[in-house]
């Protein structure tokens, strides 16, 4: 009898130990064939490794389960369904494409698991998500926040660089949700500027735009759009598309002899070797991070060095540190809550101030619709000698802006 009692106690202890080390499952959906999703996923795996090496969370290891959405909305939605029902994950993270994320919103609302989403800039997403999704945390700035931030940035740059003059702005935008909503946001800001209001007042006296089909979605000929821009003769030319558009847009701009004083690209990621291309010199880019932040941020330097050591490659897209932040921010919330209780974690995430490798502190505030928005603005950077230098914010600047733009040889 004593032997049986001992066996039962042994089994109970072993079962308890097994339960105690059950992993906390995090389900990620990323476009693995795109550099943004590829490097974001690698950065997530780095964060999970660091956290597990340090003992995990609440005495449990993390398990990251990744599904490739292939930049396909239907596959992105199916991935959320699979993670919820087959993999039975505890949390959702990841993402890049706005179009994909819009298709995922109904599935996310169906399960209402705590979601910390790194990507998706279209404000249509927060409209679809609605104001009551207290379990949804969005890290990337919305399109209208980005537009506001760029206006603030260019106004400060004009003040800091007396030789820079901005009056006419042209936006070239990919014809999907990301680009179209970016254009809509600019139109709203232009209406304010005409009234002498908003962040673009005084530097957006004229505005025009044209769409193009992204090379990432079967396009690649930008000449018609570039000739429209050339005829408008802007001081500031911005294109909003994907990394596949970067080299051909600049090459075709040179081909049609379109040389604006400020040539700006605003994709979520850039080709890994873009900075080595002579055409990259002095191209300006919008982004949330640059490797040169290592010079001014110890957190950024730790991330960069650890990423290179683990993957034997350099992170070149801001979705790498954003993916790293995606995991750490969620984990800090779980730690602060001290429990896996959903409401406790939601409350904790709303109060965290996480010093991120993007060179700024991440904290949650309401946006226009959703209660839990993270970062508000991007940064203004410039390719100089193969490096992404920070131009704005001025207090994080790593170089002086080269102006005006001229094509490299």
TrEMBL record:
This is Extracellular ligand-binding receptor. Keywords: Receptor, Signal. InterPro entries: BCAA_transport (IPR051010), Leu-bd (IPR028081), Peripla_BP_I (IPR028082). Belongs to the leucine-binding protein family. It comes from Petrotoga mobilis (strain DSM 10674 / SJ95). Residues 23-362 form the Leucine-binding protein domain.
């Amino acid at each position: 009898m004593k032997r049986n009692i001992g066996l039962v106690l042994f089994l109970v202890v072993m079962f308890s130990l097994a339960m105690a080390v059950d992993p906390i499952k995090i389900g990620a959906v990323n476009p693995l064939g795109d550099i943004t999703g590829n490097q974001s996923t690698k950065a997530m795996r780095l964060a999970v490794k660091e956290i597990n090496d340090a003992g995990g969370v609440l005495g449990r290891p993390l398990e990251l389960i990744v599904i490739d959405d292939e930049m396909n909305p239907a596959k992105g939605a199916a991935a959320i369904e699979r993670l919820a029902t087959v993999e039975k994950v505890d949390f959702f993270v990841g993402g890049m494409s706005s179009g994909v994320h819009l298709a995922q919103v109904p599935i996310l609302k169906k399960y209402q698991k705590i979601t910390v989403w790194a990507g998706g800039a279209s404000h249509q997403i927060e409209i679809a998500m609605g104001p009551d999704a207290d379990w949804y945390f969005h890290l990337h700035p919305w399109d209208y926040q980005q537009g506001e931030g760029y206006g603030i940035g260019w106004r400060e740059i004009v003040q800091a660089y007396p030789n820079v003059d901005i009056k006419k702005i042209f936006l070239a935008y990919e014809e999907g949700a990301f680009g179209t909503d970016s254009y809509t946001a600019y139109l709203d800001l232009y209406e304010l500027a005409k009234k002498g209001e908003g962040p673009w007042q005084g530097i957006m006296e004229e505005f025009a735009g044209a769409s193009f089909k992204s090379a990432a979605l079967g396009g690649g000929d930008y000449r018609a759009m570039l000739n429209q821009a050339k005829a408008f003769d802007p001081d500031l030319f911005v294109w909003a598309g994907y990394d596949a558009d970067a080299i051909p847009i600049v090459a075709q701009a040179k081909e049609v002899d379109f040389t604006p004083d400020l040539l700006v690209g605003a994709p979520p990621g850039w080709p890994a070797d873009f900075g080595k291309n002579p055409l990259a010199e002095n191209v300006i880019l919008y982004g949330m991070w640059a490797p040169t932040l290592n010079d001014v941020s110890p957190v950024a330097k730790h991330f960069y060095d650890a990423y290179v050591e683990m993957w034997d490659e350099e992170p070149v897209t801001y979705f790498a540190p954003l993916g790293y932040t995606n995991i750490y921010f969620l984990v800090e919330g779980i730690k602060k809550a001290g429990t896996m209780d959903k409401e406790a974690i939601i409350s904790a995430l709303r109060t965290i101030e996480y010093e991120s490798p993007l060179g700024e502190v991440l904290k949650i505030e309401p946006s226009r619709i959703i209660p839990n928005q993270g970062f508000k603005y991007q940064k203004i950077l410039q390719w100089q000698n193969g490096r992404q230098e920070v131009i704005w914010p001025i207090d994080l600047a790593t170089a002086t802006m080269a102006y005006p733009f001229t094509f490299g040889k």
